[in-house]
Amino acid sequence: MSILEAVIGLVAPPECISCGVEGTAFCLACSSAEIITYGERCWSCGATSAGGRTCSSCRKDSPRYVWISTNYEGAAKKLINVYKFSGLRTAADNIAEIMNQTLHDFLTKAELAKLNYLIVPIPTATSRRRQRGFEHTKLLARVLSRKTGLATIDALGRLGQTRQLGAHRDVRLKQTEGKYYVRLPYLIKDRNILLVDDVVTTGATLRGATKTFRQAGAKRVDALIFAKRL
Question: Which among 49, 147, 162, 178 could disulfide-bond with 42, CB atoms 3.0 to 4.6 Å apart, if both were Cys?
Answer without folding.
Answer: 49
